[in-house]
Design brief:
The chain has 362 residues and is α/β, with parallel strands linked by helices. 33% of the residues lie in helices and 18% in strands. The structure holds glutamic acid. Glutamic acid (GLU) binds next to helix 3 and strand 4.
């Protein structure tokens, strides 16, 4: 096979690999591993982000008393993750390929140091021919410290690892232009930068995992905006990875492909783009600042453009930027504390509150 990319992140959803016996469908997992092994052999760096820990643990542990949702997730994932990684290890081993486990939390990516540490870990694995198998550490990430789902995690990993492509494997063929169950609906094959297709998407969640098509769409658009191609495809379709990543003509195979934006953004900006969940404060800006930040020229956020500052943050923390009509337009890294920012708000002169290099406009 002749893959179109040098590095890709492949995300496998719980719905793709959930099965009857121990909660995992070995045949489907084997098919996916065989395809990844082919890609690996043809020289491509592959990072696998796999869900399925909770689903697998649930069908393994019998619990007599009713557990609250946090304890249940902790219990099931502790057992299920062991099963999941064991299965992947065995399946890759048949090809003579070594895989390794990376368990992460949203917090592990919240500061630039932590982020670089995670990046270093996966880089050294790839350099040594080891396939990273990534999942959220569900035993310790609870409530607000949780990723929305593994779609969010995979977007972050693709961006962090400078992947050229992110493939999100789910149990549907892609994003439909109507109800997927009705015969007239078709998969939207290509989504270009700036296209808004959110009105086509229903809000149903998946049966096993936490995600749904709406988060997939949101993440896919954001990642494609950063210059990375994103493909949403059906993980149960045989040879799907070869069809979407290889040089094969995609004979009749359907999927949704998000074309990457032509102007890729810097590594620091990629980190900031995915840091929204860690924001400590909110900066309300005026019309002048709004025009400058959303215009064509590179502009920093100056104190004169700030109407008010909410929340308590320190220099270096991530803050949200909110327009005069109350919409979040971006995120950035504050170059001063909230106390200092409030003091200088509305004043002319002074250094920028957010420098352009640390600013991400959505
Ligand atoms: N990390 C969860 C698991 O392995 C899945 C989260 C999701 O559904 O995206 O079960």
């Amino acid at each position: 096979m002749n893959p179109r990319f040098k590095r890709a992140v492949i995300k496998v959803g719980s719905n793709v690999i959930a099965g009857n016996d121990d909660g995992l469908d070995t045949a489907v997992m084997e098919g996916i591993v065989n395809q990844i092994a082919d890609l690996h052999r043809s020289g491509m760096d592959v990072i696998l982000v796999s869900s399925g820990a909770v689903a697998s643990g649930k069908s393994t542990v019998r619990c007599d008393r009713k557990l609250d949702s946090v304890s249940a997730r902790q219990l099931y994932s502790s057992v299920g993750q062991a099963r999941l990684i064991n299965r992947y290890y065995e399946l890759f081993d048949r090809h003579g390929i070594v895989c390794g486990q990376v368990l992460t939390t949203k917090e592990s990516l919240s500061t630039r140091d932590h982020y670089l540490n995670q990046m270093n870990c996966m880089t050294v694995m790839l350099e040594n021919g080891v396939i990273p198998v990534v999942n959220e550490n569900d035993t310790i990430s609870v409530t607000e410290l949780m990723f929305t789902d593994n779609d969010e995690l995979s977007g972050m990993v693709a961006s962090m690892m400078n992947a050229e492509c992110l493939v999100i494997l789910s149990n549907v063929d892609g994003i439909y232009n109507g109800d997927p169950r009705s015969s007239g609906s078709e998969v939207i094959a290509e989504i270009r930068p700036g296209d808004n297709i959110s009105s086509y998407i229903g809000s149903e969640k998946s049966a096993f995992g936490r995600g749904g098509m709406l988060t997939k769409y949101r993440i896919a658009s954001k990642v494609a905006d950063e210059g990375i191609e994103v493909i949403i495809a059906n993980g149960k379709t045989p040879d799907i990875l070869e069809a979407v990543l290889g040089g094969l003509p995609a004979n009749g195979i359907r999927c949704s492909r998000f074309l990457p934006s032509g102007k890729p953004i810097s590594h620091v900006k990629k980190w900031i783009a995915h840091s929204e969940g860690f924001a400590k404060g909110r900066i309300n800006i005026n019309e002048g600042a709004m025009a400058a930040l959303t215009g064509n020229r590179a502009s920093s956020l100056l104190p004169v453009g700030v109407v008010s500052v909410e929340g308590v943050f320190e220099k270096g923390d991530i803050v949200r930027i909110v327009s005069p009509d109350g919409r979040q337009i971006g995120v950035g890294k504050a170059s001063m504390s909230s106390a200092k920012a409030s003091e200088t708000a509305g004043k002319k002169g002074g250094r920028p509150l957010i420098h352009y290099d640390y600013l991400y406009i959505e």
